[in-house]
Amino acid sequence: MGYREKFAGEMDTLYKDVVKLGIECYRRLQGSIQVLSDEDTERARELVKGDRDINRMEYEINTQVINLITTQQPVARDLRLIISSIKIADDLERISDNISNVGEVRKRVKITNEKLLLRLSTMEHLALLMLEDVKTAYENKDTDLCIEIIERDKDIDSLFVQITTSDIIEESDVFVTGQSQLTAKYLERIGDHVKNIAEHVYFVITGEKYEKVAQR
């Protein structure tokens, strides 16, 4: 195998591993809000433990990146993908941290307010759709979809405001109120991290930072 073939193979592996990490985060997020109303904390504890696998996967991606930079001589386009892979993996790892935080909430309190749970589930669903679409944008090099995902984060932010300013007021237990607000914040942060990933993907495709393009 020649130098270029070896390098292309390593780049392909890095690309696929980042996608695989995103798929695993998607799997962890799916149904995570349901654990808040579980009778016991078994699923919540499993949700928390699952973060270990994400940490391992992120570490392996970082190791790949270091090896590529130190042993190869990537051109600018390849370097964009290599550096962005670290950033995307970091955002995915932080998404996983926030999913674990949802599990930690259930270990402390059970949430039964149906209206609140519906709003939280909607936030989860919107984040899942964003994650699914950012994978599509990454695979298809779709800048228009990246921009759409970035804009859709506002929908999650809007639900966060609704939950923290209206629904929570109906809850008489102060501790439950606080934990519910924390859960909404974790989901809002997940949306922020998916938005970040969309911006990283936009940079990989175009070589331009989205913030600069948006200001034109």
Spatial separation of the terminal alpha carbons: 45 Å
Tally of individual helices: 8
CATH architecture verdict? Up-down Bundle
CATH domain class: Mainly Alpha
**What form results from the Cα inertia axes?**
globular
Mean pLDDT: 93
Largest sheet: none
Share of residues in strands: under 5%
What is the structural class? Answer: mainly alpha
SSE pattern: HHHHHHHH
Specify Rg, calculated over alpha carbons.
19 Å
| Unreliably modeled segments | none
CATH homolog superfamily: Phosphate transport system protein phou homolog 2, domain 2
Report on this model:
- This protein is mainly α.
- The protein has a single domain (3-214), classed as Methane Monooxygenase Hydroxylase, Chain G, domain 1 (Up-down Bundle).
- The protein has 8 helices and no strands.
- It has helices spanning 3-29, 42-49, 51-71, 76-108, 114-140, 143-165, 174-206, 210-214.
- Helix 5 packs antiparallel against helix 6.
- The protein is globular and about 65 Å long.
- It starts with a helix and ends with a helix.
- The model has no long low-confidence stretch (mean pLDDT 93).
Briefly summarize what is shown.
The chain has 8 helices and no strands. It has 216 residues and is mainly alpha-helical.
Reconstruct the topology from this structure.
Elements: H1 3-29, H2 42-49, H3 51-71, H4 76-108, H5 114-140, H6 143-165, H7 174-206, H8 210-214
Helix pairs in contact: 1-3, 1-4, 1-5, 2-4, 3-4, 4-7, 5-6, 5-7, 6-7
